């Protein structure tokens, strides 16, 4: 099995490990959007209590912990061991039982097909060489009727202006070099990959960033950040 790994991206996020849980640090945007992501998942899945949930590209565990606090049995996957160590320690401090694993999702899919009720893969696809490989693995990991939540960034002039020039250079809310415009994914492209993986697209919604208010809202505008939900 070839590995769908970008070592530069792993190192980049490893260097952020100490800041994962600083709501005013370099991971501030993740703390801002986390309640929106969580609410959207709950709205579409109902109670998470007792459900098996996989968080692909979990980083320091921001979303993983929120899911666990709602009663889900959470597994977090990431390839940056430094981030996983932060996630494990933070979960321990908060008395949360979360299984954090350093492994590619493709490898996890070989070991645990049809294991999960819900899979989240947030802000990861634009950082891997082969997004389709990740999505195919997620499809394998889902139980029948299971739900997959993918979030990423649209590729157009507006997203380049807001997410790179605006967020990285003007507002400096994320480190320079966080995003590669060429890896942004148009909704039509993502929908094709999801459909080809044998999943049914259930919904797509935008996370609209209001630059000068420094906040995100859910909207029908998918010009920049968006979430796609699919069902097996």
TrEMBL record:
* InterPro entries listed in its UniProt record: SAM-dependent_MTases_sf, UbiG_MeTrfase
Give the record's keywords alphabetically: Methyltransferase, S-adenosyl-L-methionine, Transferase, Ubiquinone biosynthesis
Q: Does the keyword Methyltransferase apply?
A: yes
Record has Disulfide bond as a keyword: no
Its Enzyme Commission number? 2.1.1.222, 2.1.1.64
Q: Which residues bind S-adenosyl-L-methionine?
A: 37, 57, 78, 122
Q: What pathway does this protein act in?
A: Cofactor biosynthesis; ubiquinone biosynthesis
Catalysed transformations (reactions): a 3-demethylubiquinol + S-adenosyl-L-methionine = a ubiquinol + S-adenosyl-L-homocysteine + H(+); a 3-(all-trans-polyprenyl)benzene-1,2-diol + S-adenosyl-L-methionine = a 2-methoxy-6-(all-trans-polyprenyl)phenol + S-adenosyl-L-homocysteine + H(+)
CDD domains according to UniProt:
AdoMet_MTases
GO BP terms: namely: methylation
The residue range of the signal peptide is none
- GO function term, MF aspect, one: methyltransferase activity
> What job does the chain carry out?
O-methyltransferase that catalyzes the 2 O-methylation steps in the ubiquinone biosynthetic pathway.
The text of the family note is:
Belongs to the methyltransferase superfamily. UbiG/COQ3 family.
- Name of this chain's protein: Ubiquinone biosynthesis O-methyltransferase
Give the species this sequence originates from: Orbus sasakiae
